């Protein structure tokens, strides 16, 4: 029977990064993965049906939208023609290259990739059922659970991946819907809603709460909603979906105001259900080592250790933001702890990004959180209308807001909405990891003309000396 120092169950960003780090540290490691939908490819949700295909479609649809609606302003006159099949094909090519890249990294770091469904079969034991039904028994000193998550369901709304789709179905539609109803104004709903709106769909988003994107700073969320509305997205907030009926050609959605009142029926070609994700532990054999998931199905952990000795859990299957980089950070910290090093994750500094137009990116505390904590803070703000690079590129929507402690000036939160801010938030992640003051950023030379100057100008604003607005 094969013996390992570590067996990792799951080959997504949590699992594959854990496997690579274990290999780097000289541990004998296997990664068991059954592939999304039994597909036999590494990369998990993120590479196959999550981050990467969604970003591929967001990029391509943004280019299409720019060609259709913004090029003329720059003096470029074109009438773009959509080739949806090619747009989908180029997405799959990139995804294929990325999943192959992980296979290469596994070989490079001597990780054994065991294809099949893993099941814990008691302390230190894992059984893997291959596609042909054959069972392989493995043993390890440590087992790391990195089995990820699945889309959450909604009673009365049955996902058939034909007319009523989840994120996986919405990444592979074969036609542009004339109309798309999105349930949930969270990150998936707004990113994939944006893709299909840019390609020509009339998109209506039905959200239970009275705001979009819970967790985002409220001022930013308001600006974001205004911007998406201007682009043509329609929002029905404070509304709950009570049922959906699909036919061959469309869907009827029953919607009621949360506060009570008259119900209505909305009709559309397609419905996208995007109300969150749930941890995935089915058939994992948790009971064989005495692990009990919490009420919502997450595996409870303390520094990535579960209640069972030698069994660890990381990524979407544990509590915390369901993000690929959170899973990756936990992977490194968990494996380094197993290897006898000091593992650490700065949970307060995990950035979030929404890859729409404008993009939204943030790290640290929102104004609402600081107010609730009773922490005295100062805010500095800078609009992209006053940033020269944004102005010459005709991308002036949005702003940067920096929140810092009123006494020590330590940066507590950075909230960005605007052009390419996904690539700019990292500056504040580093600054905050080093516990920088807003003055440190304000006095750091930034290249001109770049959008990053807005980060500096907003930091200057904390002490009231923003110079360019
Ligand atoms: P997963 O990526 O879910 O991987 C788990 C793997 O384990 C899967 O391959 C699964 O098949 C396998 N598995 C499960 N059970 C078993 C078993 N018993 N035996 C063997 N294998 C098993 N996050 C971001 O940070 N940025 C983004 O832009 C982003 N975009 C997203 C877009 C969409 C549409 C979606 C759905 C998600 C997105 N996410 C994004 C979230 C991100 O995909 C997840 O947070 C991330 O994939 C979690 O990694 P993980 O390793 O915990 O789990
Ligand atoms: P989400 O948690 O971001 O948003 C779900 C939304 O649905 C919320 O606004 C919630 O209030 C609403 N909702 C819940 N129940 C509802 C109901 N019955 N009716 C109407 N609205 C309802 O979840 P989402 O968008 O499904 O994404 C899942 C996860 O995937 C997120 O946690 C996110 O971390 C990750 N993700 C990250 C991305 C990124 O980093 N750019 C992109 C896509 C997904």
Task: Tag the structure with descriptive keywords.
single chain; 469 residues; alpha/beta; FAD/NAD(P)-binding domain; Enolase-like, domain 1; 3 domains; seven-stranded mixed β-sheet; five-stranded parallel β-sheet; 13 helices; 30% helix; 25% strand; binds flavin-adenine dinucleotide; binds 1,4-dihydronicotinamide adenine dinucleotide
Would you write up a description of this structure?
There is one protein chain. This protein has 469 residues and is of the alpha/beta class. It has three domains: 221 residues, FAD/NAD(P)-binding domain (3-Layer(bba) Sandwich); 112 residues, FAD/NAD(P)-binding domain (3-Layer(bba) Sandwich), CATH 3.50.50.60; 105 residues, FAD/NAD-linked reductase, C-terminal dimerisation domain (Enolase-like, domain 1), CATH 3.30.390. The radius of gyration is 23 Å and the shape is globular. The mean pLDDT is 97. The structure holds flavin-adenine dinucleotide and 1,4-dihydronicotinamide adenine dinucleotide.
Give the name of the CATH architecture of the largest domain. 3-Layer(bba) Sandwich
The general outline is globular
Structural class: alpha/beta
Q: Number of helical runs?
A: 13
Proportion of helical residues: 25-40%
Mean pLDDT: 97
């Amino acid at each position: 029977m094969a013996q390992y120092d570590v067996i990792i169950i799951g080959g997504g960003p949590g699992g594959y990064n854990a496997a690579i780090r274990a290999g780097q540290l000289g541990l004998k490691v296997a990664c068991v993965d059954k592939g999304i939908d039994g597909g036999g490819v590494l990369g998990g949700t993120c590479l196959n049906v999550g981050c990467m295909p969604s970003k591929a479609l967001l990029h391509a649809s943004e280019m299409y939208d720019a060609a259709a609606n913004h090029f003329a302003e720059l003096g470029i006159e074109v009438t773009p023609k959509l080739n949806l099949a090619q747009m989908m094909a180029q997405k799959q090519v990139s995804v294929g290259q990325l999943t192959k890249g992980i296979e290469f990294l596994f070989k490079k770091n001597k990780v054994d990739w065991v294809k099949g469904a893993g099941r814990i079969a008691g302390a230190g034991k894992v059984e893997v059922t291959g596609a042909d039904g054959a069972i392989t028994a493995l043993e390890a000193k440590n087992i790391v659970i990195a089995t990820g998550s699945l889309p959450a369901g909604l009673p009365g709304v049955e996902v058939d991946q034909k007319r009523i789709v989840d994120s996986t179905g919405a990444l592979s539609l074969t036609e542009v819907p004339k109309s798309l109803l999105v349930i949930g104004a969270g990150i998936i709903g707004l990113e994939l809603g944006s893709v299909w709106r840019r390609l020509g769909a009339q998109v209506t988003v039905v959200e239970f709460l009275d705001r979009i994107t819970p967790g985002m700073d409220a001022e930013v969320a308001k600006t974001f909603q205004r911007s998406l509305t201007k682009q043509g997205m329609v929002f029905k907030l404070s509304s709950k979906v009570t049922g959906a009926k699909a036919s061959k050609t469309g869907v009827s959605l029953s919607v009621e105001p949360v506060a009570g009142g008259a119900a209505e029926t909305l009709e559309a070609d397609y419905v996208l259900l995007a109300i969150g994700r749930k941890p995935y532990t089915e058939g994992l054999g948790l009971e064989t080592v005495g692990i009990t998931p919490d009420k919502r199905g997450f595996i409870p952990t303390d520094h990535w250790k579960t209640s069972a000795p030698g069994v660890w859990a990381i990524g979407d299957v544990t509590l915390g933001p369901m993000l690929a980089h959170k899973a990756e950070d936990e992977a490194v910290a968990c494996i380094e702890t197993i290897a006898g090093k000091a593992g650490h994750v700065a949970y307060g500094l995990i950035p979030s990004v929404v890859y729409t137009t404008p993009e939204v990116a943030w790290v640290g505390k929102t104004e609402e959180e600081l107010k609730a904590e009773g922490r005295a803070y100062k805010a500095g703000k800078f609009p992209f209308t006053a940033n020269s690079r944004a102005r010459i590129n005709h991308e002036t929507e949005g702003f940067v807001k920096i929140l810092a402690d009123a006494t020590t000036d330590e940066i507590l939160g950075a909230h960005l909405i605007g052009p390419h801010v996904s690539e700019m938030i990292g500056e504040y992640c580093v600054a905050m990891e080093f516990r920088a003051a807003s003055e440190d950023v304000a006095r750091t030379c930034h290249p001109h003309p770049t959008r990053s100057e807005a980060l500096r100008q907003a930091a200057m604003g904390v002490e009231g000396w923003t110079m360019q607005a």
